[in-house]
Amino acid sequence: MADNSQIQLVSKPTAALLNRFATPLDVKNLAAEYGTPLYLVDEDTLHAKARELHRAYSKYKGPVKVAYSIKANFSPAVIRAFMKDGLTFDLTSLGELHFIRQCNADPENVIYTSVTEEPEEYVEVLRSGVRRVVVSSHKGMMNLAYAAGKAGVRPLAMVRINPEVATDAKVRASYKNGKFGVPFNGGTIDSAAKMVKHMLASDLLKFEGFHFHLGSQITDFSCYTHALDKMDAFMTKMKKENPAFQVNTFDIGGGTPVFYNDPVPTPAEMAENHTSRLNQLADNHGVFTLMIESGRFLVAESSILVSKIVNTKEYNEHKIVIVDAGYHILLDAALLKQEYPQEVIPVVDSKDQTTGLAAPKNTHLAGRLCDTYDVFPLSKASDMSSPEVGNYVSFYNVGAYSVVFNMPFHCQTKPPIVMKDSDGKYRLVRKGTTYEHLFAEEGGHLA
Question: What global pTM score does this model have?
């Protein structure tokens, strides 16, 4: 497996970084075989990121588990790679559960966190062998109890907390009156205090612990300090009111940032902020299994998108470079203005290409869609030298969410995915779809 120190993108794309995925000749050959756009995944990077995140919390005095939120990328090839690392899988839908089961993942290594929390959903979850379930409402708790009775099992139930702390994040998940989780206390039955009390008295549910998630791309870690302070006070209160109260698992969610445009802290720097606080919680309330969730961090740097430059045009000092990809396969470029690092890969052994030319002062990278928003923001780390027709553009750090957001706008099809296995060999792990596939899917052959 690759050494983690060799896979950090700290400043700008380089030939060495590209070579982690493929040489320019490999790109040429893969594009010739599978066409473009094309996703390319590096298995060693997946393993390295799993090790890095787990190692970051090595100073916690109890057991540490890393949970992969498969909503970030549910490619079976990615799931199977993380199964080798013994990761827990964080699921939030029956569709994700189906993928996990088809990959033969151990249900003991699953934590299920539903948003809808429907009773029949929970019945299927429990009958699949999953035992650790996070509930986010009183009704969800009661639905899980119903499912437990029907399935004849006693699940380990965790309460999702909304700490209601200020979070400086790309996408916030903790705020007052938010969608996710319940407050510590409150005037309704949807409060952690009431739910914990109910679970402790239940014959159908076994109280396991707590979960919270503050947001994505967090670089100011003071929100964790505030959330853990609130958790400490709440757990002290629960212990006084309920002598049987004990936390066995504490899931602090994700938020580990990924580099796109500006430098970001490492997982070790992130963990350094609050590991001592977690150890203090363990001292005060008993050692618990610490669970660290991640979707984006674990998969983002594992993948690139290779797209071909198909056209260019110039307006005064501006050059518009048009590629055969679009935001239909990199949707965060439009939704979040995600600044993926890009690099032009020259065509190998082509006598018609002029390489080494600097990019015009004002270069604009545009997609193939007939939509104003189909323009890719350039990262500070992007290198658009030699942006000529026939060259390829590599979009780095696209492993999170881009694949799962694929959509058929303009009748666009899904690109193929190729994985570079740990033995250095390339294999197709998802076939590209065709126009005929899409036509049939949209009911084209129904009478």
Answer: 0.92
